[in-house]
Design a protein that fits this description.
Keywords: ATP-binding, DNA damage, DNA recombination, DNA repair, DNA-binding, Helicase, Hydrolase, Isomerase, Nucleotide-binding. The chain is α/β, with parallel strands linked by helices. The protein contains 25 helices and 22 strands. It is globular, with a radius of gyration of 31 Å.
Amino acid sequence: MNGQALQTPVEYLKGVGATRAEVLKKELAIYTFDDLLKHFPFRHIDRTRFYKIKDINDDLPYVQVIARLLRKEILGEKHTKRLVAIVQDDTGIMELVWFQGIKWIEKTLIPGKAYVLFGKPSSFNGKAQMSHPEMDLYSPEAAKRKGNLTLQPVYSSTEKLKQFTLDSKGIQKLVAGLLEQYGNTISENLPLYILNRFKLMGRADAYRNFHFPEDAIKLAEAQHRLKFEELFVLQLKLLRTKLLRVQKFKGNIFDKVGTYFNEFYHHKLPFELTNAQKRVLKEIRQDTQRGVQMNRLLQGDVGSGKTIVALMSMLIAIDNGFQTCIMAPTEILANQHYQTIKGVIGDDFLEVALLTGSTSQKARRVIHERLESGELKILIGTHALIEDKVQYQNLGFVVIDEQHRFGVEQRAKLWRKNTIPPHVLVMTATPIPRTLAMTLYGDLDVSVIDELPAGRKPIETLHFYESRRLRMFGFMKEEIAKGRQIYVVYPLIKESEKLDLKNLEDGTEIMRREFPLPQYHISIVHGKLKPAEKEAEMQRFIKGQTQIMVATTVIEVGVNVPNASVMIIENAERFGLSQLHQLRGRVGRGAEQSYCLLMSKDKLSPDGRVRLNTMVKTNNGFEISEIDLQLRGPGNIEGTQQSGLLDLKVADLTTDQELLIQIRKFVEDVFAKDPQLAAPENQVLNQAFQSKHAGLSWDKIS
């Protein structure tokens, strides 16, 4: 948006003032005129249609009714006070109820008068009801709404805002005033050739018609235009960042594959690589030969063999005289990487060190010295790796596990550990739908491992309702008799939630009765245990001293027990899809057939049913993530909250996937023809970058 006018603090808008401005800032993060303009209505209501009382039901959204007020009264005591009014039309009677602003509303209601009512219908004891309806005195003009909007915007508001008469109607009034006064300062930010090619509405028109559409067609055009703009500016920024990085950061060239890689590949690799692993290694190999700094995202399900690919890439770096490191988000994961890599390469092959918050001062000193001298080639740890006092002699390759827990700034800190920034491989076990990856990681190249290592059998998933619990116990006993171990997981939504702990405790009681000592041994792990106790219980299970581990979701990350072949998830309907998928990935680590049993109550919500059916139907993390995206929306997919990238006001990655793919391709073409955006027709795009309000600030990276 052009000009400074729209960056004016919101308190200066007519009808706002200091007090209302404070509430708008706190409740809706509206600081400027521009923010208010981008507080779009979440739906529009057709105010030309009127319903009869007999025709309304709970399933309808907001409806409009003309009815006469028969009577009104205030009922209840102090805390349960409510205002109830009865209205009637020629088909029936309806109850209106208010819980707030009772005194003020009661004064305005005149029995005997006809009103135009507007609200969300519900039913109470079989009778039609409406809570907190909007009410206007009826007049033939009001009914026809001459010169008025046929499609009325509905804005999200909060209880706090309503106290300052900033309900949907109040916000509507402010936006209307803003557009009237400043609508002509909204300038175009897309070049004419793009507007023509994609048949897009002009920007100022789009804002007007999104808030106050002339008709449904204009509303759809306005929404499309602003979605396009939002995704276009986002992809423009992401791809330009990538382009600038390629120009700005030269990369170390790994021009040889040497002794370490070959020795490992021919003599130490515990299994044959899958085609997907070979393909990813080749992509990384090509990246590291181009003289450009690599930034690659490696996506792969739990157990798909990402760590081996990372290790082999690190060995190429070491063969070329560089040091490497792996950064994990938690000590448990850092430890697991350390154990895995030590286990695969053996003690006499290469020195590997572990650096976390728990590393002693003495051990730290040794690590620091060996890093600076260049003797230590592989360092594994948590964010302790990016502390200023950790100095490398020649860091050439960095692996970051579970990217979404590290911000762009933390990545940048690692880059500065060398004069030529190291190549970066980012790994994630959270399968991310393609469109989301394009947005979240649009500045990275993406590799995918989409097949499991040979010999791994797909996990068989079954869904049992509560009524089949005895069958579940029987199944557990059969598997234990074969020498297998079993996880039983209870949902823990919050560490302290009493209900969850009770579920765990009751469940454990039942387990102890069904699986009595001395024949069976049970480990119990939950958040209330001290770390040492937790570790001791885990170790008993890992060593095979207990056959069953009853746990809250603490086992989700970092436990690898090849002999555990059954995962039972209690109250499975309370977990999200990606969480269920992550939990299931804890089994299936050995060569035996593994099972995941989803236990649920007999009655399920439609969403719950879709989630559990999806789990039974597929083991493919990418399919699961697509369905998860449709069910939950992008803002709730793991990790996207912190990214700040998905603060999309209009576009929706669930429904606008095709548009995003089309835009991404088009932006790539724009940069291919005009990398600097120097052509006269692209000047308007260049200005979009100068405005910090046009989207993202990537200055932290360089």
